[in-house]
Amino acid sequence: MAAAPSTTGPPDFIGVGTQRSGTTWWFETLLGHPQIKPPRGRRKEQHFFDRFCAQELTDADVAAYHARFSRGPGQIAGEWTPRYMHDFWTPRLIARAAPEAKLLIMFRDPIERFRSGVPHRLNRTAGGRMEAVTADAIERGRYATQLRRMLACHDASKLLILQYEKCVADPADQYRRTLRFLGVDADHEHDGFERRRGTTQASNKQPLPAHLMDGLRATMEPEVARLAEMTPEIDVGLWKNFAHLRAENALST
Fold first, then answer.
1. 107-119, pLDDT tens digit by residue?
2. CA 223 to CA 29: how far, in whole Å?
């Protein structure tokens, strides 16, 4: 009997955030599941919606996006572009192009994400100016602001909030949690959790000057506090730069 043909259509899931938070590792982990398929060409980050900051998204564009996702019977397909959550125009476009897609978000201590993101961008941007890259890295860490934008266009039931530090500490549990959310077999055993978690910037990280660290904490603290209020899944005690917020919250309750 011939195998059932593959079909194309809107992605079943889209990872929308955040850069330098273990998303490559987690996406590759998900692809180890026989029911989960990548986009055509296997490229994790499609960056499909980036250019629509300056042009209209047409029905032909939407059809072209759908054509990137092929899956067989009983399979699902998706992508993970971390900047989707950062770009203010993208949540509404996702709601149009893939209204039923489930959305994945991975958060990481925003200061550790900053320390990884700046050298990552400088390595990839020829002639990049430090001040521009730094400003962009700060904006990418405004998690609560970005999450509110997503929730303005998507029901909370469609979002899965993951925390990088939890995934590192107990990957099997968070893997099963992700599979259940995606609606595939959650009993599948994965044996590759210890593989390299994306491209590391550990060798490029430098201690931050005191004035910069103080400025980052002052900028990010309100965002982290609001995120903790919005998402019970986030344990700020796992973020060494903001662990004091958990203690303060405990005292106020």
1. 999 999 988 867 6
2. 29
DSSP H or E segment with residue 37 = strand 36-37
Q: Rounded distance, CA 67 to CA 84, Å?
A: 19
> What was the pLDDT predicted at 208?
82
What letter would DSSP give residue 240?
Answer: T
Residues 60, 54 contacting (CB under 8 angstroms): no
Phi and psi at residue 105, to the nearest 5°: -135, 125
Domains of the chain, residue spans: 8-190+200-208
Output the pTM of the full model. 0.89
What CA–CA distance (Å, rounded) separates 65 from 97?
8
Whether cis (ω within 30° of 0) applies to the bond prior to 24 is no
CATH number of the domain at 8-190+200-208, please?
3.40.50.300
